[in-house]
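FIELD: query
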Amino acid sequence: MSFRTLFWSKYALFAVILMTVVIIPAIVFGSSKTIYVDHGASSNAQDGTYDHPYHDISSALDHAGDGDKVIIHDGTYKEHVTIPKGVTVEGNSKDRGKVVIDGGSNKPAVTMKHGTSLSFVTVKNGKDGISVVKDALAKLYDVLVKGADRDGIHVEKAPLEKNHRLYAEKVEVRDSGKAGIYSDARYTVLVNCSFHDNGTDGVDFLAGVKGWLENVTSNGNGGSGWKAVVDGSDIWSRNNQFRNNGREGVEIESFGAAGSFGVKSSKTVDNGRWGIALVARNASASSMWKSIFLEKNSSWGNRYGNVSSVIRAN
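FIELD: result
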């Protein structure tokens, strides 16, 4: 099968998945009641109704159950937040800059459990900005994550199935101490996202990820724009940009196990080392290029060159 046929068959599959997320979100992220939060409310009575909202997010979440929605009024909320199973959390004004969850330090600012959704907010500080727990299905939409001590988004391991998927759209992650997003082996989809000025890699995928990247920019990070391990992975991408990163634009690593990785119609520009680097971590990984598919990419201004041959590194 040609790369073109293989790539577009993969792309068609992901298109169906993305349509499912957009068209039938209520099936996964449905709501049965709405709970309101407003830390500036004058009423002393707090029952989560519109007229008597809770004054902090955690109190609302303590009273939220599977299928409920929590609406947060504009303001800064200095607390660590854990979103219970099946709960949706949204900023009231649909402007992510107007609702800020400031997690301080020591714990993740936001922890997301299975079947949760977070939209129209800024997440600030925290040990990690957002932590997606093991096996969780989670959705992020129009969220800014900034200033985390470690990873902006830290995603734990899960089965490679769409009912355990992380789906992130219109998410910006910046100024994290480590990676913009760090994903263990699981199903991870990033669409129209930006990762910039993070301490290590913009996007860091471990071995075993099933993933899709589209219209992602990863610029000005201290490590690589995107680092991924091919072993056990099935990762495809198109229309992404990786610029001005300290190491590679895209760093593709292998320890010798089977996997597949495709990059199409993307740009790697002005990175500190290679535009795209193929890194074999042992002798058995030296033939890794057979599972790497590169098509119609543009690359210039990278210090060592555009695409490396297989680099042997321990």
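FIELD: remark
The radius of gyration is 20 Å.
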